[in-house]
User: Which sequence fits this backbone?
């Protein structure tokens, strides 16, 4: 089963941009858009599109933490993601912004 590299990278929170402005940073984190290919996805006849996410954003001490998880609307989607090593049901990035250095995310 093959998956697009960008989509796989979204699952690990590595598709993001940080733009610096005079008084702010704009952080954009891309979340997975499709369920990964898996035998459970085919067995349960799940759609390609990921369900909606719940987001949590925390800002403090020059650090922004962004996390998201799949809403529980479709239990099959959550179960398929929980059973698949290639499906992150939560994805997060933490960005450190210091006045003396460029912002970086992990």
Assistant:
């Amino acid at each position: 089963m093959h998956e697009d590299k960008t989509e796989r990278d979204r699952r690990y929170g590595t598709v993001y941009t940080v733009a610096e402005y005079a008084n702010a940073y704009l952080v954009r984190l891309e979340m997975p858009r499709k369920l990964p290919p898996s035998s459970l996805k085919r067995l349960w006849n799940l759609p390609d599109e990921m369900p909606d996410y719940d987001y949590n954003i925390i800002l403090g001490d020059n650090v922004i933490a962004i996390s998201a998880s799949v809403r529980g609307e479709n239990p099959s989607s959550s179960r398929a993601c929980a059973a698949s090593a290639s499906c992150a049901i939560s994805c997060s990035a933490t960005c450190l912004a210091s006045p003396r250095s460029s912002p970086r995310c992990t």
Q: What stands out?
A: The chain has three helices and six strands.
